[in-house]
Amino acid sequence: GNLEELQWMAQMINDMLFLAKADHGLLVPGQAPLALHEEVDALLEYYAPLAEDSDVQMLREGEALLQGDRHMLRRALSNLLDNALRFTPAGGQIRVTLEAGPKISVANTGGSIEAAALPRLFDRFYRVDPARREGSSEHAGLGLAITRSIVQAHGGSIRAECEGGWTRFVIGFSQDR
Q1: Which of 29, 140, 117 is nearest to 76 (CA)?
Q2: What percent of the residues of the chain are helix, what percent strand, and what percent coil, each to the nearest 5?
Q3: How many C-beta neighbours within 10 Å does residue 100 have?
Q4: Which of 3, 10, 93, 164 measures 20 to 30 Å from 115, CA to CA?
Q5: Nearest 10 degrees: CA dihedral of 81, 98, 100, 157?
Q6: For 42-98, what is each residue's pLDDT tens digit?
Q7: What percent of the chain has pLDDT over 70?
Q8: Which residues contact 147 (CB under 8 A, 6 or more apart)?
Q9: Taking the CA of residue 17 as centre, how many other CA atoms within 13 Å lie in the half-sphere pointing to its CB?
Q10: In contact, 94 and 106? CB cutoff 8 Å
């Protein structure tokens, strides 16, 4: 128990240091050509056992290319997929859509989020469910803040939408990058 708590605290400190670097413009992503569909497929394969255990279907649609930092982008997409898996009920679906631009959408079925809460999802330590705010847990509420920092370091933007039984995170990147 103590070792797990220590590991959780160490990860939270590392996440806070990452965000501090982002705040001061010190995140400098690499600029390698990436086939986003290959990166997404690798992450979907990684999360497949958890999705199967949770009876959640995951799929990718489309293809896209981007100049960027493989590790940082995988971390951002992994944060989105991890959240989607935690909040998708059994029998639900997670859909990653890639488009030219490039544009990435990570959507999952499940409960809705109030429109007023959507912009706050990217705030540090913010959690929609008040019951999840107390005590320590595996998730400290930093994942979406980190994801936004990574996207912004790549010259992109991210927003959250919730409609028709789907929660969707949409990332757009400039073609000039």
Answers
A1: 29
A2: 45, 25, 30
A3: 10
A4: 93
A5: -20
A6: 999 999 999 999 999 999 999 999 999 999 999 999 999 999 999 999 999 999 999
A7: 84
A8: 75, 76, 79, 80, 122, 158, 169
A9: 6
A10: yes
**Residues of 149-176 as b/e, b for ≥16 C-beta within 10 angstroms?**
bbbebbebebebebeeebbbbbbbbeee
Half-sphere exposure of 71 (CA within 13 A, CB side): 4
Reported pTM: 0.82
- The helix (H) or strand (E) run that includes residue 79 is helix 70-87
87, amino acid identity: F
**pLDDT interval class at 132 (50, 70, 90):** very low
Sequence length of the chain is 177
For the four alpha carbons of 84, 141, 131 and 6, in that order, the dihedral sign comes to positive
